Predict the structure of Integral membrane protein.
Amino acid sequence: MALSTAAITSGSLIGGWQLARSTGIRPLGGAVLAAGGILAGREWARTTSPAVTTALVATYIGAFGLSHPLAKKIGSWPSVLAVSAVTAAAAYALSDRRA
């Protein structure tokens, strides 16, 4: 059974942010992000081409990076939810839908 990378990426972005926020320990959130990225990346490497895998990894990392300046404009929750939705949509369209 194939893993839902859309759920993994959105869950790790939201979960990592919430863990870092609630504990005040940012590296814990980073560990969740890293674990989600590794798990999704392995699935992408197994089920898609190298170009698609690279694009999806870049989207995931870019979403994390973009969430910080976006949060200053629209707030933390809306920012995390927005980048998680975009990342999940990309993962679904380029990987999960085909599985």
